[in-house]
Every structure is written in C-alpha cells, then in structure tokens.
C-alpha cells in the first residue's frame, strides 16, 4: 500500500497516482465517461439533462475524494456521509460564472481591471472550493477574508497548488485539442470525458492532501464517518480478518497495517475497509496532541508508555504538563519502581511547571530528597528539604518532609 509520508504534496506524486489507480475509483470514473455515449441520443434536451447529471456526479466524486483524503484516509471507498448536496458541482461553478460576468461587463470598459479581477479570482478558486466543501453554501464560501486567510496559512503550499492546477488545466486543454477528430465521435466523447473526469478528481485529490498536510494551520477537524465505515462483516472462516479486527480493537494499528500490506502484496483485495479503519486510527493518533496522548496513557494506567512519551519530548527540549494528579501518579510510579533517574528528570523544574500546585511540588521534591539521600548525596537531599520547608511553610502539608528532616537531624546527618 503506497501511503504518503506527510510532506509537501509535490513529493507525493506516487501516492496520488496509486490512489487514482484504485479499482473502485478507476471503474467509477470509467463508468461516468462511458455514460457520455448517451449524449449521442437524438434528443437535445435529454442530452443536456444527461450531461448535467454526469457533470454533477463527477464533481460529487471529486469533492468526496478531497474531503476523505483531507481527513487522512488514504484508501478510496465508495460510501461517504459528508453531507454534500447533489448540486455541489453547480455551486462550484459559481466562481467561473463570476469570472464570466466580470469579463462581459468590464472587459470593454476597463480591460486591465477585468483581467486583474479574473486572475485574482482564478488564484482564489482553490480557497473557494475548500470553503465550499466545508459549508456547502455559495454565499458562505464567497468570503474574500476567508480566502486570504487560507492563502496566508497555507503559504507556499497554496502557490504550488495553484501552479499545479494551472498545469493540469493546460494538460486537459492540450489533450482535448490533440484528440479532436482523431477518432469516431462516440469514442471521442468517452475518451475526452474520461480525461476530464480523471484530471478533475486528481486535482481535488491533491487539494485534499494539502488540507491534510496543513490540518493544524487550517484548524481542520476530520468529519465523523463512523456510521458508514465502522463495521465490516467478517467471515467466521477468515482468521486474517479476525486477527486484523482484534488488533484494531486493541489499538495496535501498526501491526494491523503491516498484516494488511503483506496480504495485499499476496493478492488480497478485500481488506480495503479494514485498511481504511487502520488509517483512520493512525490519523487520530497522529493528530492527538502529545499532552492529550500522555493524559490518555496515564488514565489507562500505561505508566511505562506514558513515561517514555514524556521523556521523548523532554529530550527534544519540550516539557509536557499533564494534570497535577496524573503527574503525581507518574512520579509515584517512578519512585515505586526505583526509576530514580526518570524521577529526578520529572521533578527538575516541577515548581515552575505547577506554580499553583504547592502540594504536588512538595510531595515530588520530598521523594527526590529520599532518592538523593539513598544514593549517598546527603548534602543535596538536605538542601532540597530545607528549601521546601522554608518556601512552602504556609502553602502545603509539610508533615512528611518535616519528619524526615528531623530524623536526619537526630541521626546527626545534618
């Protein structure tokens, strides 16, 4: 399975080509293209109706692909619940219609202004379509302020997207020019329609990936698609599917994906929905903030995993701040399991992280003082005890560190 590596879209062309080669998607586009043979019917009115329906269907597929990939789902499925209207294709044409109106009304009066406005609207078209996909309302999507915000947040990716779209549009025009009168009319309709639909979906696929790659900048929240993709019938005699389902239920998404990849290399083509679920789980885990992941691990009692996550970010120069109770549990775990080095790392700077939690700081530094004393660092242990007894005299319960300090005094260690 060719999956993207979450980098700039110009480096992900193998993924885009592989996605477009999905049997379901390829056959769907082919079916829409073949249906254009109906345009040969003698009735002009019927031909217009068929052309409009095929146009709407192609745009609907393109928008669904865009939203699906934007949500981090990299295996095409043909069942969606994005709530898109059947006429979203017509709504997408609002931008070119506006450009046409500007051309008709201003081109003779002020050609320079008309050209400038048309180019600006062409540049803003991807932003309009992104908003339209979210709102499904032309008026809401026709917001220049939102367009500018999208351009600003995407930065170079947006400029590259516009250039890519221009190249795809130029390729479509070139191929149509070359193919005109090159074959029988009925076949020409099918081939040209296939190229148009393919490049349309391809363009929206790229745009969906750009949204996915910049989800944090765009504040993109994945759609809820539980109802249409959560369940899959698993045959009682198919242990492979049962194993993958069990791994997904346990949260072992990486192992599930490895099995799916291996089975697909061996020719299995019926694991698409399970692959989709695995990708959804991977995306959810990726998009969850480190702090939320840490709190989740602590709530589940997965102390070792939580400690590893905290230390990983600490080594990179970042400090995660879970809830005070969760932090106390993690420090206590380290003390009970004799993970002294990790405990000292957790305690270091704790008073700055939790200035409003004096009891947490006192309890943690008390444990740290015990560790230091037990490792023959009496002077450092005494210094910590004296510090917390003085600093937090009227702000926390000091009975435990005070008793420990007095015990050291009696033993002559101070």
Keywords for this structure?
414 residues, mainly alpha, Serine Threonine Protein Phosphatase 5, Tetratricopeptide repeat, 23 helices, 72% helix, 0% strand
Note down, in words, how this protein is organized.
The protein has helices at about 15-20, 25-35, 45-70, 90, 95-105, 110-135, 140, 145-155, 155-180, 185-215, 215-220, 225-230, 240-250, 255-265, 270-285, 290-300, 305-315, 325-335, 340-345, 350-355, 360-375, 380-390, 400-410. With about 425 residues, it is an all-alpha fold. The protein has three domains: about 10-220, no CATH class; about 230-285, no CATH class; about 320-410, Serine Threonine Protein Phosphatase 5, Tetratricopeptide repeat (Alpha Horseshoe). Helix 9 packs antiparallel against helix 10 and helix 18 packs antiparallel against helix 19.
Q: Outline, from the CA principal axes?
A: elongated
Along the chain, the helix and strand elements come as: HHHHHHHHHHHHHHHHHHHHHHH
Indicate the mean pLDDT.
83
The structural class is mainly alpha
Poorly predicted ranges (pLDDT <50, ≥5 residues)?
A: 223-235
Portion in beta strands: under 5%
The whole-angstrom Rg is 30 Å
Query: How many discrete structural domains?
Result: 3
Largest sheet: none
Spatial separation of the terminal alpha carbons: 66 Å
Summarize the amount of helix as a percent range. over 70%
Total of DSSP H or I helical runs spanning 4+ residues: 23
Q: How many strand elements?
A: 0
Short description:
With 414 residues, the chain is mainly alpha-helical. It has 23 helices and no strands. About 3% of the residues have low confidence.
């Amino acid at each position: 399975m060719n999956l993207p590596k979450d980098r700039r879209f110009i480096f992900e062309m193998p993924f885009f080509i592989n996605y477009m080669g999905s049997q379901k998607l390829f056959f769907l586009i082919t079916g829409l293209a073949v249906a254009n043979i109906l345009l040969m019917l003698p009735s002009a009115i019927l031909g217009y109706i068929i052309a409009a329906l095929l146009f709407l269907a192609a745009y609907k597929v393109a928008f669904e692909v865009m939203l699906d990939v934007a949500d981090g789902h990299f295996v095409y499925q043909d069942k969606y619940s994005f709530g898109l209207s059947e006429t979203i294709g017509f709504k997408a044409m609002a931008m070119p219609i506006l450009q046409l109106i500007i051309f008709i009304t201003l081109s003779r009066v002020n050609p320079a202004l008309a050209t400038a406005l048309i180019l600006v609207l062409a540049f803003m078209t991807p932003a309009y379509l992104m908003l339209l996909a979210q709102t499904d309302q032309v008026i809401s999507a026709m917001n220049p302020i939102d367009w500018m915000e999208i351009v600003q947040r995407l930065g170079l990716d947006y400029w590259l997207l516009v250039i890519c779209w221009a190249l795809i549009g130029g390729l479509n025009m070139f191929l149509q020019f070359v193919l005109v009168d090159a074959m029988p009319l009925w076949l020409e309709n099918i081939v040209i329609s296939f190229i148009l639909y393919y490049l349309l979906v391809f363009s929206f696929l790229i745009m969906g990936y750009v949204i996915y790659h910049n989800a944090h900048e765009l504040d993109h929240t994945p759609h809820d698609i539980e109802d249409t993709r959560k369940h899959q019938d698993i045959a009682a005699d198919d242990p492979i599917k049962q194993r993958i389902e069990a791994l997904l239920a346990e949260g072992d998404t990486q192992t599930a994906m490895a099995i799916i990849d291996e089975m697909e290399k061996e020719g299995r083509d019926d694991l698409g929905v399970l692959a989709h679920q695995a990708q959804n789980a991977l995306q959810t885990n990726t998009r969850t903030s480190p702090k939320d992941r840490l709190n989740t691990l602590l709530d589940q009692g997965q102390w070792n995993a939580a400690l590893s996550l905290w230390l990983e970010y600490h080594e990179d120069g970042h400090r995660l701040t879970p809830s005070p109770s969760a932090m106390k549990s993690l420090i206590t775990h380290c003390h009970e399991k004799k993970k002294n080095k990790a405990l000292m790392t957790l305690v270091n700077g704790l008073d700055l992280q939790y200035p409003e939690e004096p009891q947490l700081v006192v309890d943690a530094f008390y444990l740290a003082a015990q560790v230091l004393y037990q490792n023959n660092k009496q002077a450092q242990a005494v210094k910590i005890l004296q510090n917390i007894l003085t600093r937090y005299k009227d702000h926390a319960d000091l009975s435990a560190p005070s008793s420990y300090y007095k015990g050291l005094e009696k033993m002559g260690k101070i």
